[in-house]
Structure to design on (249 residues):
């Protein structure tokens, strides 16, 4: 079997966290034209998880029309997935990288009139009041560097959702303590080995996870979501240090 090669920044040897500006630059320097073609072969149960997102949105909204905001939308991977399953939904893609956003028209060429892009930092942007039926995000909000940043974001998301609206997030999730965190990472590492990633690639993936991402635990997300006004929260899927969690306004 051929050895997989991870495409991402090289952070091995670094012990500090990347700054927001470095993260911004990292995405400004991405090859955004082919970003969407890259497999998420580092994500356990990828097919199941992506279908789960669709199933939950359908369970919540049926086939009704509505507006969705995708935070840290990148080049439109999640947006394209959702638009392909729902005829009446419209999506706003927000990302602070103009480079990532410039690839969106190509990625969403079959969905003209059903999407718009906003180039903004979602941690600072004014999202507006009761604008969306759902806010979704995949592998983006883990760039928050402290609880206050997450809490402010969750308050803004709560405010921009219509009553009954849903926040759904697919992302890396930390353990509640070192034991759980390490268990998650050991599980992920063994998954990557089974996926045939090279040891060097696995080292880089884990280093990037520690350097670029600042995930918090599921309990912390629930606590912050509740503090932001989400009374109903749940986990739809959890595997190793990954999860899909939701909050309902
Ligand atoms: C790992 S990519 C994921 C992209 C897309 N959601 C996907 O699943 O393919 C993370 C994206 O979040 C964006 N991002 C990170 N921090 C952000 C911030 N503070 N505000 C807006 N976008 C941000 C990056 O520019 C990048 O496009």
């Amino acid at each position: 079997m051929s050895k997989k090669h991870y495409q991402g920044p090289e952070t091995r040897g670094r012990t500090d966290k990347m700054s927001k500006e470095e993260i911004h630059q990292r995405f400004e320097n991405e090859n955004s034209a082919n970003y969407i073609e890259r497999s998420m072969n580092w994500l356990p149960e990828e097919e199941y998880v992506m279908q789960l997102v669709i199933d939950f949105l359908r369970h919540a909204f049926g086939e009704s029309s509505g507006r969705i905001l995708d935070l840290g939308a990148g080049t439109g991977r999640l947006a394209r997935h959702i638009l392909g399953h729902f005829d009446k939904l419209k999506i706003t893609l927000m990302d602070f990288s103009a480079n990532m956003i410039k690839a969106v028209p190509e990625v969403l060429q079959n969905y003209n009139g059903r999407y718009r892009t906003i180039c903004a930092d979602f941690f600072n942007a004014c999202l507006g009041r009761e604008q969306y039926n759902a806010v979704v995000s995949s592998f983006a909000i883990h760039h928050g560097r402290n609880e206050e940043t997450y809490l402010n974001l969750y308050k803004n998301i709560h405010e921009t959702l219509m009553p009954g609206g849903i926040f759904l997030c697919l992302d890396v999730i930390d353990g509640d303590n070192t034991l759980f965190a390490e268990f998650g990472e050991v599980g992920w590492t063994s998954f990557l080995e089974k996926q045939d990633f090279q040891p060097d690639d696995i080292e880089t993936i884990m280093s990037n996870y520690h350097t670029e991402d600042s995930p918090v635990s599921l309990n912390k997300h629930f606590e912050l979501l509740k503090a932001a006004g989400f009374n109903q929260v749940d986990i739809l899927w959890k595997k190793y240090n990954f999860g899909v969690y939701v909050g309902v306004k």
Remarks:
- The pocket of S-adenosylmethionine is lined by residues 23, 27, 72-74, 77-78, 95-97, 100, 121-123, 138-140, 143 (CB under 6 Å).
- Strands lie at 66-71, 89-95, 115-119, 132-138, 161-172, 232-239, 242-248.
- The chain has one domain: 20-173+217-248.
- The mean pLDDT is 94.
